[in-house]
Structures are given as C-alpha cells and as structure tokens.
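Example 3.2
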Amino acid sequence: MNTCHSCGERGNHHLTLESGLQVHLCDDCYNAWFCKRLGLDYEQYKHPRTITVFKIRFSVRVEIVSSGVAYFAYRNRGKELESICFIGPFAMSGTEAIQELKNKVALRTYKPSLEYGILNDMGTIGLLQNELDPDEMEFLIDGKRYNSEQYLNFLRFHAGSNLVYLIEPRVPRPNSEWFTMAEHLPKEIVTEMNEL
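Structure, written as tokens:
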C-alpha cells in the first residue's frame, strides 16, 4: 500500500512525473492539487461524507475533473454498488452542489427502475463488464445484474418507443487505484510539481 505524499493516508492516485518520479496522493490531496493547478480553492468544494434521501444514507465522494466537480452519491445495494453522479461547474459551491446531488438522488430513487419485469419510463441502469467474461456487458438494475439478453427482453415491452439516454460516470470502487502520467495531463493544468 502506498501512502499519500501530502498527508500520510492511503495514496490511491499515482502520478508519474516526466522525471520518472512517482507521486502518491489520496483523493482529497489529489483534488486539492488539481484545484491548485486550475487556480481554484478546494475549500469551496467541501462536502459532507454522507447524505440522507428518503431515509436512505448514501456515502459521498468528490472528484475534480477538467470540466467541473463530480459529486457521487453511492451505497451498497446487496453485493452491488449503486451510484448517482452530479457534475457541477467550478463556480458552484459544495453546498449548492450537494443540494443538486440530493435532488438527483431523490428523482432517481423514488421508485424502482424495474417493476413486474417491465422497465419504468424513467430509471437508472448501470453498465458493467461481466466479471467472468470481459467481452460481455452486464446491466445493473435496482441492485441486480442482468445479461444482454435479459436486458433486451425488458426493452421489448417498449417497442415502438424512443430510448432517450444520458451517460454519466459511476463512482469508482472504494479500493480503486488511479495511474496517470504527468505528460498526459493538459499542459495548462500541470506546470511544475515542486509544491509536492
């Protein structure tokens, strides 16, 4: 296990500098570093570690990305990780973004995506790789995995309809590791690594 160069916590972001030196950062320190590179104050994106919607508790994770700030609400649902994402602009505070995330969670969880073997008009479906066969996709609906054939059967009821979709990122698994080479990051974000 690598420890964060800044705070000593578990370092899950591994950044290889052009010199070949590898720097390890935890989520918070990586986000603070990325904000500094963008000329932003990471403090404005502070957030609670959990939120509660409809008496259901969700963990919250934040990731600074080049287009804004991704706020993830997630929980274990059986063996699966259910996640909902809101990407806010850099101008939005963490307090405002968390309220938007709560609204999105409420919209997505007020009723199941699948009832009586029929997909509801609105819901959330996770796209996953099959753990046994990486060439196969699986579909996560209400905490349960379905194969491609089962998913297509759910869609048969809606034949003659339009399928309107929105693709959003899923929360990374809690033990995810991130490997990045400094040379692959945008030049306007990475200047020098002297501050680490």
